[in-house]
Amino acid sequence: MHTPNKKILLRSSWQTVNIGDIAHTPGLLTLLEKHLPEHEVWLWPTDVRNGVEGLLRQRFPYLRIVQTESDIEAAFAECDFLLHGSGPYLVGAEEVARWRNATGKPYGVFGITLPAGFAGPEVVHLLSGARFAYFRDSVSLALAREHGVNCQDMAFVPDAAFAVDLRNDAPAEAFLAANGLKEGRFLCCIGRFRNTPYWRIPSKNMPMDAAKHARNEALKEQDHAPLREAILQIVRGTDLKILLCPEDETQMGVNKEMIYDLLPEAARSRVVWREQYWLTDEALSTYVRSAGLFGHEMHSPILCVGNGIPAMVVRWAEQTSKGFMWRDIGLPDWLFDFDQTIDRECFPAAALHWAQHLPKARARAAEARAMVESLHSAAMQKLGQELKEF
Q1: Max CA-CA distance within the chain?
Q2: Which of 11, 22, 153, 303 has its CA 20 to 30 A from that of 29?
Q3: pLDDT one-digit tens code per residue, 245-265
Q4: Quick check: 389 pLDDT over 90?
């Protein structure tokens, strides 16, 4: 007889230089712990270095991490279902194919974006063979259908990072105290370039991409001027302070170059520039003490709204379709496309209005969070049903 408790092999943890990429894994582990606690979870990561393994083991001490070839062989023998976690595309396509070919056991995909350039025949075949294929934005869901994905259960399911509950309160509280930031009386802001300059991160050991660098340089002023103007209007029109903080290891420099150094001296007295990168737990301990967040990133807003904190998202073409998730969870007026002149022009006034009506913004964030939790619950219920069928 089959035991009712099954083993799930989670393919996730893509990289550690971005708190959003880190967040995918603890988000999905939290959902599995909450909705399917009777089942055992093994993690098959790409990278859990730079403090991430310790972060995961502290929060999920029962987690088994697959790190060697013998670990993989054991996982293939013992695990019953492979679950591909959230990501910018089917990041683990090679491993999903290996699982399918070696074991014949079922698999599913949870909350990915599907860009057109990553929807080739092999990916379409893998997605079609999944027990479920869930996409984190409606644009990706539509594209999957257009490209011929015929999985019987396809739906919009938001990124698993909404469910992250990690905390590292002590350093967060110490940083806020040292910089005169009071709980609920500051907003977080994140700037970024069009293309992440991974060549600036020593651990990546990557040569500079001349074309991407040129694109960044050509549009960096256009993309950051509205953020600076929003900050100016907020410090003039409210008593809030601003914290410039990073989502990836390159953004401390971006925030200083494109925002902090270009603000008038009077405004800089109300703005704090964070010089150090941080991990997801300390970042989230800071975000939940803020009044809200705005900027050029996606996963810091996800972490905020997943914990009831308002967040406005700026997107552009280089960020694929993931930003449309904000429209899908009922926050279309908190999504701005800086490829559009009208959005760049209206952003500062919209940010000021949002900052001046924070109780209303918190209520909106709570509604979006409830919608996300409902969709996540339904997806977990589907996984639970699959685990009962074999």
Answers
A1: 72
A2: 153
A3: 999 999 999 999 999 999 999
A4: no
pTM, to two decimals: 0.97
Q: Which of 211, 217, 277 is nearest to 244 (CA)?
A: 277
Angle at 285 between CA 260 and CA 28, to 5 degrees: 115
Q: How confident is the model at residue 2 (pLDDT cuts 50, 70, 90)?
A: very low
Instruction: Tell how far CA 128 is from the center of its chain.
Output: 25
Average pLDDT, the chain: 97
- Contact criterion met (CB below 8 Å) for 137 and 347: no
Q: Is the pLDDT of residue 381 over 50?
A: yes
Q: Are 19 and 248 in contact (CB under 8 A)?
A: yes
- Give the full edge-to-edge strand order of the sheet including 133-135: 64-65, 40-45, 7-12, 81-84, 107-112, 133-135, 154-156
Length of the chain: 390
Residue range 48-63, pLDDT digits in tens:
999 999 999 999 999 9
Q: What pLDDT digit, counting tens, does each position of 139-172 carry?
A: 999 999 999 999 999 999 999 999 999 999 999 9
pLDDT for position 81: 98
CA distance 18 to 251: 10
> Is-contact 154 133, C-beta < 8 A?
yes
Listed residue (169, 193, 166) closest to 58, CA to CA? 166
325 has a pLDDT exceeding 70: yes
| Residues near 373 by beta carbon (within 8 Å), at least 6 away in sequence | 162
